[in-house]
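User: Hello, can you help with two protein structures?

Assistant: Certainly.
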Amino acid sequence: MIRHAFAFAAALTTPVALAAQSTGDLAVVQRHLQALTTMTADFTQTDRNGKVLTGTFTLKRPGKLRFQYEKGVPILIVAEGGALTFIDYSVRQVQRWPIKNSPLGVLLDPSRDISRYAKVVPTGNPQVVSIEANDPNHPEYGRITLIFQRDGAAPAGLMLQGWVALDSQNNRTTIRLSNQKFGVPVSDGTFRWNDPRRSSTRN
């Protein structure tokens, strides 16, 4: 369970050893992010009120992702062209903001040195790696905590299990992933969407 990843381990090692392990884990996460080309998964999203939605998650480097929600949910989230777009078909509304201003930017720009804006969060499980990323100069961008499971079959030996995003108003959204697949063919057309301001047809 993802919540177990946030339980702090007992202080059984020296600060020097902990620092070395943290540095090593950040480097492994960086290698994992750089090794990703495509990824697909099922997701379960839980918001601050406990509302649960499901759907499919697709990522393609560079800079593309899509959250396709379950049937009946009139929401779509797509990242492409340097922007993250939130589409609400129920009210024909579209909101866009730069990916770099979103916590999800850590997943979409592997060229960034994550050691400059991320830190390891100690866990009680040596098989779990958790990192928290945020821009200290821009707290309004929010923060994201990524949870990885060590897995030799995954890129750089890590399997992304999900994340917890916290916006500047402390609204928490938890994403849990399952059925992760890496390196699968993903068409660029996957990240196209219908603009509800010009059409009543939903992607």
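That covers the first. Now for the second protein you mentioned:
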Amino acid sequence: MAGDFDGFANKKNEGTSAKPKTRIAIFGVGLIGGSLALCWKGKPGYEVVGHSVNPASVEKYKALGVVDVATTSIAEAAMDADFIFLCVPVGKLNDYVDELARLPLKPGCVLTDVGSTKASVVAHAQRLELNGAVFIGGHPMAGSERSGVEAATADLFENAYYVLTPTDRTPPEALNRLEELLRWTRAKIVKTDSALHDEIVGAISHLPHIIAVALVNQIAAYNETNDLYRSLAAGGFRDITRIASSDPTIWRDILLNNRDVLLRLLQDWRKSMDRFAALLEAGDGEGVAEQFRLAGRFRSQLPERRKGMISSLYECYVNVPDQPGIIGKIATELGQEKINLSNLHIIESREDVPGVLRLSFRQGNDLERAVALLQALGYEVFF
């Protein structure tokens, strides 16, 4: 893939008056890596390089215009980079750090990652000589129901938390440069210890994924003897367990990487379930109600508008008459108002019975505008 870099290696020698561009190398240009790339792509003073071991992916990056240059060569991607973002699966992070440590990285280069766990990769990087480069752990806490570079968008991180995990050995100047670069993401930068990060993210993201998977598998086992479980497990059950459909390989690596934290969290979870079971065994209705009150009180304090690791569900349901063209009419009305509809699904439509249409949106404001529009048009909308 050297042809992709024709003239690339010599750009630093072009002229003496122009300020050299800040070169950003992104390894793994998927949803997260691609969205980061789009934050800087086309901005004056920046050059974005994409890397993949797959030639077909490299061609895709170029065809979509997500990066300025793309290559399958790790050495070429890292050459003269001011910043390197590792947007590869958690299970491969240490391997990439090892590979980069063997290269003549630009002195002062900031190497960072976007993994969901931080303690292991931070500790691994600290044990290596990075030839003058600096490793700073990172984790943008945003996601999407979709995946891949095709789903990348420059506003993915807007209003989301972006966690950085510097150590006492991190040069302040390097940290400041990374923070300044990340301002283009419009995310809220938070700095914390890598171990604390893993404890918190384990509790608010990793543990819920385990619970969702276990719950779905429990119902699936019941369903083997009575298919009515699957028939009735629609609506709310499907919504609250949707994260059980997350990528198995990615989540295998995340959970194993954060194993010690999760084992402690699961012990606490079992204690909570045991307390609930004791309330039920004792017929303690007030105790059960108090658990709901406590949960409701804390949940009401959670921020509604800030993005998080588990992408928000923006959906509504519309009762529609069973008549030709009604689905297209609703979609057209939303489109005319420039309301971005990400998906629609007909749940039920029978003769003489209103159909139920589920509408999904990627942004909360699109949902709010859609509900107001459809209600104004006389449709019955509910959540």
